[in-house]
## 1
Amino acid sequence: MHSLTHRDRVHPTPYQITLTHVSRRWRAVATQTPDLWTFLYISHTHKRLERLDAFLTRSASRPLDIVIRWCPFGSPADLINPPKPRVTNAKRDAELFGAFFVKLIPRVSRWAVFDFGSDAWRLMYTALTMLHSTSAPRLRSLLLRYYDVMDPVENTDPAWPAHSAFAPFGGGPLELQELIVRAVPLDWPRCVFAGLKSLTLGKNARSVGGPANEALRILERSPDLVSLRLEDEVIPNDPVVPVELHALEDLCVAHCNWDQTEWLPDRIVAPNLRALTLLPIAPLRSRVVDALMSVHATTGTSLLKPLRAFRTVPFGDELHSEQLNAFYEELHNIRVLVLDTNAYTTTDHVKLMFDLIYCPTGARHHLPNLTTMVVSLMDWAIMEILVKSRKNAGIPLKKIICSTTCVDSDRAHPFARDLEAFGTVEWPSAECPWECTLTDWLVFDAAVPGTREFEDACAQVKCHLH
């Protein structure tokens, strides 16, 4: 067993075990404090079953937070303790996993968090099969991730996806608040997911896919949903009744073709949406922009109008000036703009920079409320012009964060003197996305440098100031 005090730190010996070896008194106090033993981290490198027994016994009846990273093929997604790629004895590995998992199943009624990631499909298959008819009344967070990093014969027995999809925890009602599913085929009609606050439908190299009406069924049963992330294709079946999500604040559509999610602007009614991420595998095209700007009959506004934060890839060349001007006008209220990149050229980023510098004839500057920019690519000369021009216009940028790959430590950046904050951040990828959300960047934008709130905001987005 490992116990973590921080996501990126691993203690070979759990601190709870260390406490029990300080003295008899410390041991008595530690073993009689159930809350010390409620977080369980299990990986394929673990061999000591007795430690699992100790945690399960000493945690008494407290809810359990269980994180499993069983990645015998050396998945890079095993972020907590990435192993070196190795050839695994599949049978022995499956037996070891089964020995651990069979001890957890009798305590399933105590599970509060179940976060299972594996690059061995047979183990995901085994776990979901065992969970089919169980009941987990305390479960609040369910995270299932299949990391398909290699395709040896022993990793496809049984073949992916299984002939039958899964409906875990079907033995009783669930009160989930968070659901993350990545490349795991579920039997959605039989799953009893409802009342969610956060939903992620993700994928890896393999796509599971699913009909839009099933995704919308979950949304209909989750009126208090705050965060929605769609990576996998969601295939629309007409007609689809629009779903009103008045609590939805953060929407992300990433790593998929727009054709597979173009139903969103018309089918999702989110009048209080504050943050929108659009990361399709191609630039935003004319049809996409028109769909995003379309006024919904229910709200009388577009999906873009209420936004305060927007993350996107470069625009396509086919967008004409009138369409771009209208698009910027819909984004009038945003304070945070995150410019991502894709496999295309950097010229689209440069074009957007110039759009923010020069005031259109007879009109105000684009995005007048913009105060924070986060960019994956940087043209230093243009950025300096941008900072000065917006300062002179009375609509200054206050914070600029760029990818660590953009910064040369020997180069001075004079425009930083006109900013409240300038820094860098490790840019995310499909394999290692940001842990923070656009809502976290809004908190960063609002925080005043020099305050504890600003320090906390920097830590949350993992920003390094210069």
## 2
Amino acid sequence: MILADESFILADESLILADESLILVNESFILADESLILADESLILVNESFILADESLILADESLILVNESLILADESFILVNESFILANEPLKLLPLPPAPTMSLPSFLARRSFHYGWIVAGLTFLALLVAAGIRSAPGVFIVPLEQEFGWSRATISLAISINLVLYGLIGPFAATVMERIGIRRMMVFSLAVIALGVGLTTLMSASWQLVLLWGVVVGSGSGVIALVLGAIVVNRWFLEKRGLVLGILTASTATGQLVFLPMLASIADRFGWRTAALALTGAAVLIIPAIAAFMRDRPADVGLRPFGDNSETVELSQPRANSITSTLNALWVGMRNRDFWLLFGSFFICGASTNGLIGTHLIPACIDHGIPEVKAAGLLAIMGLFDFFGTTMSGWLSDRWNNRYLLFWYYGLRGLSLIFLPFSFNFSFYGLSIFAVFYGLDWIATVPPTVRLVANVFGKENVGVMFGWIVAGHQLGAATAAFGAGVLRTWTGSYLQAFILSGILCLIAAVCVLQIGQSPTKGNSELSSVTLNS
């Protein structure tokens, strides 16, 4: 038998290479120049650099032998000639080359010194951005809903208030559920719920349907895609640059306003509010596949340590035995802690002065003063732009400065800007632009220092659930302001009282935050012996 390329001749069960460099006779190899003899499973090289005897290797760190540009495995199982495998005991039987090893995305990024935590942070930012855009939509929808259905501003504000309450109250429980079923699954589920709720609002015809869909369904879904999600991701995936990353994730709220509000206002003005709602639904649906494909729960899931962790061991991914009981236990521990109430109360005021008042009622207030809706939405977009820089800088500062002093300045400056707001309407759109820049710089800048203080008081391992309860206070404040400002507007025909009262509350919060961590109480001493995530 002769091969087509004439490289082998098979005769009497012997294999002879055409160039006579290798002869196989009686299952033994003999080189023509007698430099290599292989017989009875023993291999001897003349230069004694490689010896195989009794299936043991001596003085060798290679498993392959190169003979005239052909490879022979030391265990005699294969011969590689002309890029094809031939079994040594079955001449001329061609075998395919082994497949190239596959490389996972985390491994690919790791080889290029890029930590997968940045991918997780980017996906989290994207989800928070879309959720923020959806939460900012009520400011655009209030007036169109009034005009189409004749509902009062107080009625519409009630649905928004329920949305904000659920957004806050679900956060702590979402943190514990994430420990059980994972961040990725919770994010996919919540985005699907949000998309469903927003999409169905286009079919509503009664005010109770607005309360059910926007208040309950969308509020419940958005409770998972909340500030607590960013806190959990940062504390799991980052040991270094936590403040900076948290600042960027928090700034997603501002970016959501910047991206969505002008677009929503323009769509609602040209095509109606239903088309704007469908655009929000599409945005939520579009990011679900990316979250499902690339989001990971912990660094250990991809064989990594948190960014900046140079320890030698990788923490195993083991979900904690969290439950509703442990979430309520965390609240019980917090309620006996003085610092918890200072954090809870200050964040209550934070929510009242941002999402509840400005986020919900600034556009209607502008319309009351003759400013078109699209231009008013542009004001919130300006706030979002400056808040992105302000909150990111706040995260950077929270790694370096005393966080109590940062909060003092944030709340104090916000209070002054809110007191100025009612009078800025008298200076036309340019006066409001000054307010937008000044107020926007610290809209959500309070979040990074607050998270750091929560970690200092309750421990890094308890940040998720404890910050979840603090965020609940934030959203209760937002709900109170959203509904209260709507009622005041209905009764008095003006937002003046709401703006002034909110500014005064911010000044009170500025004083209160200076007391955080200054006077240990009985609750503080118990924290070291209580495991919140049991």
